[in-house]
Amino acid sequence: MLIQRTITNEYSEIIETPDPTTIEFEIIFSEIMKEALKYDELKVIIVVDNLDRVSSDDAFSIWATLRTFLEHRNYNSPEWFKQLWVVIPYDPEGISRMWKGKEKNLQEKDTGFATSFLDKILQIRFFVPPPILSDYRKYLIDCLNKALPAHTESEFHIIYRLYVLSNPEPTPRDIKIFVNQVGAFHRQWGDTIPIGHMAYYVILKQNNVNIVEELRKGNLPEINRASLLGNGVQDNLAALHFNVDVQRARQIVLRKPIISALTDIHIDEIKLLAETNPGFWEIMEQELLGILNDWLENETTKIIMAVSCMIEAGVFNATHREELKAIKAVTYDMFLKITYLSQFNTNIAKGMVNITRVYEDSVLVPKMAQIISETQFKDDEKELVDAILYFLKGINAEVLKSQLKNGISLKVDVPGWLKISDYLVEKDPSKQYWDYLRITDLTEVTNNLLNTISSSAYSKSHINAIRVLSETKADIPRQEIVTAINNILLTPNAVNSSIIGLFYETLWELRSITPLADSSLTTLVNNNYSLHHLYYCIIENNHSSTAWCLIPYLSKNPATQYSTDIGQASSGKVYLDQIFSSPETYPEISKNIIEIAIQSGNQSIFFDVHNINPIAKPWVIYCLKIVAEGLEASKVFTSEIITENWQLLKSEVNEGQRPGKRFESLIVKLVESSDLIQYTCDNKFDYTHCGIYGAIVRNGGANNVSVKYCTP
What we know:
single chain, mainly alpha, two-stranded parallel ribbon, 38 helices, 64% helix, 2% strand
């Protein structure tokens, strides 16, 4: 028969003797003492040590029990009581902590309960003074000699100096714990790490220092310990902390802060890491390729910014480092792999400029332009223009001319290009960098230009787009644009005044590029279509469009001769004569004409009209006075114009004032804001210009070179 399982019964019996009560303990203890101390010459000494090192509950339980033979009795004391001694070594701070653990509402520094307790329980107290520094030094070095007999007295002295800085009043127990810990590290590492560095690590751990964090910040070793420790202490601290070799420890400590600083573009952090960590260069050389490869997939902007961060932190200035050559080679190869940017702004443009300046390679500038060209731009055209202009301005002009012949192509739609053109005209009015911009879908833009001419959608933005495209020498249908405008303007029908002004401005912009545009303006002026359009602009109170009708009209027909009667041309001529005879009635029109003349470089129009058209003289003088008293004086009264027309200005602009006052003020402005003095001195002396020479001498300042020029 096979039995798989048996049935058993188990019984447990626990016998426990309960703790005796205080009274029971006192009776038993008293009987024991009575028997033990029945002879007078006998004594019992009870030593209760480490009472301050147990839990608060256990300590108070012991105290309660000991009160039986600790408390002083003034009456009914047994005979043996005088023969019993209780010795309790204690740390006052430990007793205070014990009370704090028992009474949770006590403050950290509240020692009143502990003091009162000790005063009541202990009859006699001996205070142990702190060790004298010389004794403490001898004791420490004796302990080190026993634990590390193969090391020298000078090494022990360094350890003593390190220890005393952090623990000026140690107990013998503190010293033993410290020496034992140093010995433990020495048993593990041997002499591969200096014994002083091990001691320093133990000190830092005992003081609860966050060693890794302080190493990363460059705060270790402290200034007052650095001279004691010598070189390599940072690497050795890391090795001890991570229990790895020095090379591996460097990577563990530095890799994270380096990546963090490069990711967040913390220039000061990278600079500090490079200056305070000897392992910085090795880590950069080993880890940089991996870091950049991680970013190449979707975070290409980080590559540009990280390298720029290193450049601004001065890392690339350490040309004596062999690691720098490898770093530059790695980053250069990475730039060539970048095909696009996830975004583009002024900060990234600054990073690109930094890179092109440091690497000085003929490939990088066109490569950066190509990267920009392949980037898909969002809606912020202003940010884009600012970034592109920053990039172009940061590159040497000669480098731009030689290396950026293909420019920067922008992947934007028609509305985007119109906004870019507007902002580019505003930010770069001198047209210095327009030629470096291209648009990917030019056909879409030009078709839009042609289509909007015949609709009310044509705007100032379209004119700016034409201006920018013309500067970039883009193949735009200029003649088709002019023809489309002519088909509208060369009819006697009424046209919206805003569109009229935009059309004239467009033809004026294209006149130097497309002969057909200049020819169209001539036709509009000679057949008095300009006066016809002028009429509608004035009755609709459109000052800007009125000015745009008059600029080409006065430029091509300064005598304002009237011939053909087209549409409302005769009414327009009446308004023009009123402007000439009573210019103060139409101040805004005159101001707009002045502004356009300055922008288009047609400042001589006022003097041409004055010299050939007597009827227009009041208007010309009115305009010249406005210019003379304004901030734009040097833009209208160029050195050449003022020299040729000074007599007119002196006689006409001073009307109603003391003779010469306004003219003298004008000369002061021109001397301060133009090259009038230099221009005068560079040309042959002409006695017919003595009036202007005198004004220049009077208003040229103390260093006026024209004084010598005008002195016989």
